[in-house]
TrEMBL record:
<dbReference type="InterPro" id="IPR029062">
    <property type="entry name" value="Class_I_gatase-like"/>
</dbReference>
<dbReference type="InterPro" id="IPR002818">
    <property type="entry name" value="DJ-1/PfpI"/>
</dbReference>
<feature type="domain" description="DJ-1/PfpI">
    <location>
        <begin position="4"/>
        <end position="179"/>
    </location>
</feature>
<dbReference type="Pfam" id="PF01965">
    <property type="entry name" value="DJ-1_PfpI"/>
</dbReference>
<dbReference type="InterPro" id="IPR006286">
    <property type="entry name" value="C56_PfpI-like"/>
</dbReference>
<comment type="similarity">
    <text>Belongs to the peptidase C56 family.</text>
</comment>
<protein>
    <submittedName>
        <fullName>DJ-1/PfpI family protein</fullName>
    </submittedName>
</protein>
């Protein structure tokens, strides 16, 4: 039976941070499902870095269907979790169904990959306390407030938690996450 991976996201997620792990994990042989607040066509965004801007810019991105609503997810069926960034995490962290899903992955010490603003979700369930993480650099104070040791580097691996700063770090992020997955949930 092929191991299943869950991606949790919503509208305004960063397009690349959803679609790159989705495609890379499928390429590796995993069965990947996207869960959101509701089964619907999600509207992603593109964050880019442009000269003269103090922060990233945002443009409309791809659309993608959610396979499941958070309320339909049985976390026990999934071997690992991916948490993309973008603006989605800032409102998703308030969803009680999603918080149950996140907590179950951390309680079971299953592999979790988070990137960019995704750690706002794991912070909401107290999943970062005492851990080493990276995130979008502007989140350093949020990560420290959540009890994590922040490192501004391409990727940080802390046990089964693999974090990265943003889409320019994808190759390192997925390379390290796949090492954890192959050890904990190999493709059969």
């Amino acid at each position: 039976m092929t191991a299943k991976i869950l991606i949790v996201t919503g509208d305004a997620a960063e397009s690349l941070e959803v679609l790159y792990p989705y495609q890379r994990l499928r390429e590796e042989g995993y069965d990947v499902h996207v869960a959101a607040p509701a089964r619907k066509q999600l509207r992603f965004v593109v964050h880019d870095f442009e000269p003269g801007f103090d922060t990233y810019t945002e443009k409309p991105g791809y659309t993608w269907p959610a396979d499941l609503a958070f309320a339909e997810v049985d976390a026990g069926e999934y071997a690992a979790l991916v948490i993309p960034g973008g603006r989605a995490p800032e409102y998703l962290r308030n969803d009680p169904e999603l918080r149950k899903i996140l907590k179950s992955f951390f309680d079971a010490d299953k592999p979790v990959a988070q990137i960019c603003h995704g750690p706002l979700l794991t912070a909401a369930v107290d999943g970062l306390r005492g851990r080493r993480v990276t995130a979008y650099p502007a989140l350093e104070p949020d990560m420290q407030s959540a009890g994590a040791a922040f490192q501004d580097t391409e990727v940080v691996v802390d046990g089964t938690l693999v974090s990265s700063r943003a889409w320019p770090d994808h190759s390192g992020w997925m390379r390290e996450f796949l090492k954890v997955l192959r050890a904990k949930a190999p493709v059969t």
